[in-house]
Amino acid sequence: MVRHGLLCVVLAACEFPVPEGGPCDSDASCPDGQVCSATRRCEPELEACVASMTSGDEHTCVIREDHTAWCWGRNTSGQLGDGTTDVRGAPVQVVGATKFAAIAAGGSHTCAVADDHRAWCWGNNNAGQLGTGIASTSPQPMPVAGLTSVTALAAGRAHTCALLDGGLVRCWGEDQDDGGVLLGVKELVAGGPISCAITGDGALACWGDDPPELFPLPDGSPVAHVALGVDFLCALSTGGDVYCRGSNEDGQLGTPGPASNDAFVRVPLRVRATAIFAGGQFACIVPDGGDDRNLWCWGEDADQQLADGTDRDHPSPFLSSYAAPVDADGGLYHMCALSSRGAVTCSGFNGRGQLGDGHPTMQGKPPPAIAGLGGVTSIATGLDHSCAVAAGAVWCWGQNDFGQLGDGTLLDRSTPVRVFGVERAVAVAAGEKHSCALLDDATAMCWGSDTNGQLSNGEAPSTSHFQGALAQPVLDGQGNVLRGITQLALGSALTCAVVGGGVLCWGSNSEGEAGQPVMPGRNIYVPTAVPFPPATSVREITAGDSHVCAVINDATVMCWGENGSGQLGNGDPANHDDSSTPVAVKMLTGVEHIRSFRHHTCALANTKVSCWGEGEFGALGTDSPADRFTPGMPVSLPPTPTLITAGGEHSCALTSAGLFCWGSNSTGQLGDGSFDRHFTPVSAAVPTGAKIIALSGGDEHTCAVLEGGTVTCWGLDNHGQLGDGGYERPGRVAPVLPCP
After folding, report:
1. C-alpha distances out from residue 418 to 390, 405, 413, 426, 429, Å
2. What residue ranges define each of the domains in the chain, with the CATH number in brackets?
3. How far is 512 from 503, CA to CA, in rounded Å?
4. DSSP 3-state assignment of 291?
5. CB of 15 closer than 8 Å to CB of 234
6. 328 alpha carbon, distance to own chain's centre
7. Average pLDDT, stretch 55-69?
8. Burial class (CB in 10 A: 0-12, 13-18, 19+), 270
9. What pLDDT, in 10s, does the model give residues 353-396?
10. What phi and psi values does residue 290 have, to the nearest 5 degrees?
11. Are 718 and 414 contacting, i.e. CB atoms less than 8 angstroms apart?
């Protein structure tokens, strides 16, 4: 079977040993025949019902033994064939009564061979890759016009090829010089804009927008199988040797060397290969070695698609944890394999749900409320973690590498855990790697990273990850509990508090963000007053990575710290020096509410929202990626915004017409389901009837508290920061495919 970017292989049947289960290894790996479950225990790889499988760029499809087709993953063009364009983190059935014998997934479309040897396609049709004779995209199968006697299909980025009975090839879609002049073809593959075929005598021919060209192997031997990645090609000789050519920036040629090579180079394998396939920037072979054979792989592993738990690229072949598949395939950043039991396991990037385990590591729309969490009155989002206050207790979830969840461990948590030792909390704040709670007696407790003294807990700052795993009171310079706190704001490695109308800060001061003169290598280890002008009283503060802003008593704003992108709002591109003393934000009055994150700030003033600072990713809400050194024109929003938040590269505002967000959306943090960047506001798909009472933007995720105190979060979920049980797993997982 063939598909986008590779050859799917069918091998001899074999049995996996299934030893007793136990905890998953630290890299989420398990013994052969087992997979790591959501509870992080090794569970048997159950017998299933899959006959064949294929992977597209960011989706995966299978044909069950009953000849029905099922798909999961990205679905923005309808490539899953379920009649919708909704991302699916678990398998859904392709609609219609057609029975299928073979399937091939491309960039954002899918095609299948029916039992009667006719071809059907669905998904994106921007280049005519569906072959239906109709220009429109289709989220459900449509018959390919004029083709009968189809024996196999291959799908590339935006084109499709069919192998007809008798060995004739036909192609359609983007940049395809019809390969129909080829006869006697026994194998057909497609990847990116390229298609390749192997003839009966072992000749390899490839084409795109040019006619087919022959590609002989260096030793002159016949080609048995071929695999196509995004910008490289690998061929398997009949003698079991593997040769690759093309880009080698991620090691996809299987041998260290130049960044690219236009000639075939031999992959230094210690075994003979019987089958080969490729993903976006990686390739794997099945060795000739009986039932105990595991896949040998090489190339890109940044998303842990090779399931070795390292996320390091492999310029040379290594023995993977995938054992003796009968079918295998790779997408851009993930791979899947089929066992002799009919069970599929997958590894790699799961942002669009392409692993099929029901827990995609990105949510492009606000999902149902986090289970078991209610009565929330305050919420805060850090870099990759989130915290909430409910009935005086603090609950946190997400990344925990410095103890920022406060549960006494360094384990990431994909569902909320209670912060130990914190009672009577009224508000919570989150920084990059630390968190703090404001208590009802106007004191505070903090936990997490203390690398720059941002906890102010009376102990020397430490790089130890365990130093702040439990919450401790914030102390003043004399070792007493700091009292009179009315608000907290946390930056990257900084904590600030409003006390008696003034502001105290402690932690990093590398850009003057603690409000003190910068001295190289010197941080501020105890709460220290920020020097405001006389008679200034602070109403609200907010902090970005290395800058802080405050709403003062005359409803204007003053900021201090880093100003490289205009974060202080006090000048123009020719005047953006950092400042350790507060400076007035220009052209901004009547300010009611203010929020910062990373390198930008937004303010709600006179029922309008204005933003300034870094503009590259669209977080300022203008139609330009330019930085803004003063607030400038308000963001174009529906009437009466009441709440605002700022994230790493995005911003949101709640208006009378609903929630609107703008900026980077690569992980779904805008909540509109598109994953496309928007320089101007788009409507977030908040559940119908839900009323938002609080908002918080993290680095690449967003959380909202709904009326009644429930919480929904969307965007990046690689560390569990959405609280829905999802997280990035370094090992193999099993799609939750129902079987009849």
Report:
1. 10, 8, 11, 15, 15
2. 2-361 (2.130.10.30), 376-716 (2.130.10.30)
3. 14
4. helix
5. no
6. 23
7. 98
8. exposed
9. 999 999 999 999 999 999 999 999 999 999 999 999 999 999 99
10. 85, -165
11. no
